[in-house]
Design a protein that fits this description.
By secondary structure, the protein is mainly α. It has helices at about 10-20, 25-50, 55-65. The chain is about 75% helix and about 0% strand. α1 packs across α2 (about 25-50).
Length: about 70
């Protein structure tokens, strides 16, 4: 992947580094990007599942545990 250099908000980067437990700016940015993608996918999954019929979900759950 290519190198990208941008002006980064240093206090936000430091807080993200603390929260993510990363040790370098590069690792912090990459972990933060992955976390944003993960959160969006989880949100989309929850929205999709909330639109499903509860009875259908119960049936699917029962079948999955057979």
């Amino acid at each position: 992947m290519g190198r990208t250099v941008e002006n980064v908000d240093e206090p936000s980067l430091a807080e993200a580094q603390r929260l993510l437990g990363t040790s370098s700016n590069r690792d912090t940015v990459n972990a933060a990007l992955k976390e944003v993608v993960r959160q969006k996918l989880v949100q989309e999954f929850i929205e999709m599942m909330s639109e499903r019929d509860p009875d259908e979900l119960e049936r699917l759950s029962a079948e999955a545990w057979k």
